[in-house]
Amino acid sequence: MEKLGLNEIRDLFRDFFVSKGHYAAGSASLIPKNDKSLLIINSGMAPLKAYFAGVETPPSKRMTTCQKCIRTGDIDNVGKTARHGTFFEMLGNFSFGDYFKEESLTWGWEFITEHLNMPKDKLWATIYQDDDDAYDIWIKLGMPAERIVRLGKEDNFWEIGLGPCGPCSEIYYDRGEAYGCGAPDCKPGCECDRYIEFWNHVFSQFSKEEDGSYSNLAHPNIDTGMGLERLACIMQDVDSIFDIDTIRKILDSVAQMAGVEYQAGNEQNDVSLRIITDHLRSMVFMIADGIMPSNEGRGYVLRRLIRRAARHGRLLGIKENNFLAKLMDSVVEVSGGAYPELVEKHDYIKKLIAIEEEQFAKTMDNGMGILEEYIAKLDKSDKMVLDGVDAFKLYDTYGFPVEMTEEILAERGISVDMEGFKENMNRQKELARQGQKSTEDVAWKDAADYDKLPKSKFLGYTELDSNAKVLYVNSSEGKNLLIFDKTPFYATGGGQLHDTGVIIIADKEYHVNDVTKENDIFLHFVDESVDNVNVGDTAELKVDVTNRNRTARGHSATHILQQALKDVLGEHVSQAGSYVDNHYLRFDFNHFEAMTHDQIKEVEDIVNDKIDAFLPILMQEMPIEEAQKMGATAIFGEKYGEIVRVVSMGDYSVEFCGGTHIDNTGKIGAFKIVSEAGIASGIRRIEAITGTQVIGYTEDKESVISNVCATLKSNASDIEKKAAQLVSDNRELEKTIKSLKADEIAGSLDEIIASGSDINGIKLITKKFDNTDVAQLREMADAIKSSEAKSIFVAASVNDGKIAILVSVSDELVSGGFHAGKLVKEIAQVAGGNGGGKAGMAQAGAKDESKLEEAFELAKTLVANN
Known about the structure:
Elements: H1 6-19, E1 23-24, H2 49-53, E2 62-70, E3 87-96, H3 101-115, E4 123-128, H4 132-141, E5 148-151, H5 153-156, E6 157-158, E7 163-174, E8 195-208, E9 214-227, H6 228-236, H7 245-258, H8 267-288, H9 297-315, H10 323-335, H11 340-344, H12 346-381, E10 385-386, H13 388-398, H14 402-410, E11 415-416, H15 418-436, H16 439-447, E12 457-458, E13 465-476, E14 479-484, E15 486-487, E16 501-505, E17 508-518, E18 521-526, E19 538-543, H17 545-569, E20 575-580, E21 585-590, H18 597-612, E22 617-623, H19 624-629, E23 643-649, E24 653-656, E25 671-680, E26 683-690, H20 692-712, H21 719-747, H22 749-754, E27 757-759, E28 762-770, H23 774-787, E29 791-799, E30 802-809, H24 811-815, H25 820-830, E31 834-837, E32 841-846, H26 852-865
Parallel strand pairs: 1-2, 4-5, 10-11, 12-15, 28-29
Antiparallel strand pairs: 2-3, 3-9, 4-7, 6-7, 7-8, 8-9, 13-14, 13-19, 14-18, 16-17, 16-19, 17-18, 20-21, 21-26, 22-23, 23-24, 25-26, 27-28, 29-30, 30-32, 31-32
Helix pairs in contact: 3-4, 7-8, 7-10, 8-9, 8-10, 8-12, 9-12, 10-12, 13-15, 17-18, 25-26
């Protein structure tokens, strides 16, 4: 049996099944498509479920794939054993109502014995206990009867709930007696390490019904799965996935950077090397598929993997900054040939990992000090369980992942009160939910009784003025509510604000101030009392056309904006929220860093180019399957029915959308980005204006320029030159002032030292300085250290209301246990501030100048009691 490389095996498998008439599909993304039952793709057949269910038509009745997969159920065991991993590739061949058992097993046998050249006497098969068809096929292929093992439903029958299911047949490789348990009846099904299952052939021939019975499928299917890494272990005759060629190359890169050797007798080093190696593979593939680190969902899985790997780099003693970002090159090197997206997105992947590493380094520095304090308290009290409230504080205040807390403590034999942690987490969530609810709204909704009304018919896509019949009237709790059988008023939803306008009933006007929707019932809130309105009255509903148009053009602009962001920043960009009203638009999106000025300008230019192109905007309702074939962009987490509304901006942007739009991009008029900022980790926000709002924005800027010109006594053409000259002159003046100040301080240094107090042989100097920057305080601190071997300098600088506190400790006192970082933190808190730093020198900010003398007194107490 030839020792084949992992990449070579993958190619052999694909080519073999192509020769058998299979369509070779590329690996699907790790992000499930239209499948909310999965967080991340975890098997070869998961992306093909729609084909097996008959919801979608496959490109061919015969398919073969090598699918990227992530499984995190065993994440805590990764590294501790040489078998577990989070990332793996699954080889598979599939039949959708075409061939069945005989072809599947025959081709499987042909591939492993004639193309992989596995010795036949090392191969075994298991079948479902009642599957005589599979037994007969194996006998026909030459498998000895004694090497065909019948197993029960738990082992060899595949089913998940109701629907398609069936028996399966697994192929095993015999590693030899040296790996066995020694039992005379040892064979597949035994729990020892002798027999490795490497290829499962599932025969979906039944459908499980609600009454528990099984019916025959009209068109049986084949679904096989063979782990590529496990197969490579067999072909390369190694015991662990970490020893196969491609993965070992990554591991060796990690070991080289750490300056350690794998399997050299240090088990903890080996665990860390395996964790980093496995997690590197996962993070690179996840980021390449558009997953970004976050605090929820699949983004949290990615963040946890990166942070776990980063921590184990520290345990190995790796000192290099952003070491994971550097090591990811090895993953691209061994897998980039099969997965070109790794090469195409190489720089993006590297940058995102580096950013996450830098953020985590800060988290570790902050959190580890607190955790060590908790551990010290536990040691003193002889406790072995960290309170849930402490674990939650680490998570909530310092951003320290609870899984990291668990792992670090477990290494010291300490556990975490996870029930207590969850209680604190749930309490915080409940408080947040309560904070978002208006007590008035809750009371009013509890008193409302409109939930039994029929659904309102929405006319607003095509009509802005219509007659309707009153179905419900309510005037209570300060609300004036009207509900009709139909309406042209758009209700707030999908990020778009509601329409405004008037409702005319019996010649009286009611001004609409809000429209909401609950269970497809449109609720119209008006300013005037509705006490004189009766159910059954006829009303005329008139939408404010100008308001609608302004909102619609902003909404259409967000669609173009999203695609422009993808074009400029990358395909990882996806919508994370939006808001549109008649004044401006707001668009939140996933991205890992602030946009540059040039990127903002490029996005702005693209949007305006599409506006100038006067692209037709087409709004269509269609089955969701048809919309997906068009490539329409859906918002993750949104619920869509069988019929969806698709909005197309020419052929540039195609999205699922239920909002209102103009009919041509030219009607947007103009587009201007007014701000770009981060609002959460990995989430950016753009605020922009369109149409006539751009004119108002320009007028405001012109007014500012005019006022600046008047102040500088300059005209607009010379304003930049005049402003630059003023800045230059000001800098020269600041340099002169600083120089004079430095001379003044140097001249009074002896006086400053002499003003200090002697506390237990330590010279403590406390002093407030006005209009002195921190750099000057540091120079002063160094001079004092040179003059006084046992000194502590506590200085406060006040500049334009801003307060900086600096603490400096001489080297001799640092050796004696004094720590400037700890001192400045306590001292600054007295004046409403906080800070920290190194043992020799540290800095903090403060807010209350009136408390500085009190802070200096605390400094004396701290020094005296140290």
